[in-house]
Amino acid sequence: MIEFVKGNVVEVNPEYIVLDHHGMGYLIHTPNPYIYDVSNREIIIYTYQHVREDVLALYGFPSRKDRTLFTRLLNVTGIGPKGALAILAFGRLEQVVGAIEGENEAFLIKFPGVGKKTARQIILDLKGKVADLIETGFVHADKIDPTIMVGNPSLDALNEAVEALKVLGYAEREIRKILPLLESERLTTDQYIKKALQHLVQGK
Fold first, then answer.
1. Which residues contact 22 (CB under 8 A, 6 or more apart)?
2. Can you tell me the distance from the alpha carbon of 60 to that of 47, in angstroms, rounded to the nearest whole number?
3. Which of 37, 65, 184, 186 gives the lowest tally of CB atoms within 10 Å of its CB?
4. Helices (DSSP H) in the chain: which residue ranges?
5. What is the pLDDT at residue 45?
6. How many angstroms separate the CA atoms of 138 and 117, rounded?
7. Can you give the pLDDT at residue 204?
8. Cβ atoms 73, 85 nearer than 8 A
9. pTM value?
10. What phi, psi does 186 have (nearest 5°)?
11. What is the model's pLDDT at position 11?
């Protein structure tokens, strides 16, 4: 297994990034590719190699804790890599863990592909097994009110964010419903995605 890849990002798109490591380009699927920028700055991405008969894919995360939650989600019946990525893309590890430990099905079913049955299975399989990912203990999903800082505007940022949300599995009708809440903002792609996920998952 590849523990991590160190290099610089040479491509970012809604589904994956490409990391240049000594002249070799690694295509890495990530929960939110737009947390990364194309630059010469060297970064570390913690990876998970997913192997099936017809698939060989590399998934990457900014921390080992994110990767651990991803791999534990993969062990839940009904959750595949795409579903696990959508949950990780929310970017609030404490809230996801809090929802599992607090048996908050209503929070979990907001993610694409997670119905009541799958939400219940996540809780049954992972309750008591993910609290260790949060150093100071878990926080219930309804106790956090995250804010988004306004960054440099980009004319294409909102369109890129919409495409990234589609890749994560959100339906076009769901995205259209929250677009009016985003169109007046001047944010980066990453910030648009995070704010959209707040509205989609938390209804805020």
1. 7
2. 4
3. 184
4. 64-74, 81-89, 93-101, 105-108, 116-126, 157-168, 172-182, 189-197
5. 96
6. 23
7. 56
8. no
9. 0.77
10. -120, 90
11. 97
> Looking at domain 4-61, does it have CATH number 2.40.50.140?
yes
How far apart CA 32 and CA 170 sit, in angstroms, is 14
The owner of tokens 């964010």 is 161
In b/e form, how buried is each residue of 105-125, taking b as 16+ CB within 10 angstroms? bebbbbbbbbeeebbebbbeb
Q: Which two tokens stand for residue 156?
A: 């294409």
Spatial separation of the C-alpha atoms in residues 83 and 114, rounded to whole Å: 8
Interaxial angle between packed helices 116-126 and 64-74, expressed in degrees from 0 to 180 and rounded to the nearest 10: 120
Determine the CATH number of domain 64-143: 1.10.150.20
* Structure token digits, residue 31: 């929960």
Instruction: Identify the DSSP state of 202.
Output: I
Beta-carbon contacts of residue 61 (< 8 Å; ≥ 6 apart): 30, 31, 45, 46, 47, 48, 67, 70, 88
Question: Average pLDDT of each block of 10 consecutive residues along the chain (204 residues)?
Answer: 92 96 96 93 95 88 94 94 93 89 93 93 94 61 35 64 92 90 86 92 73
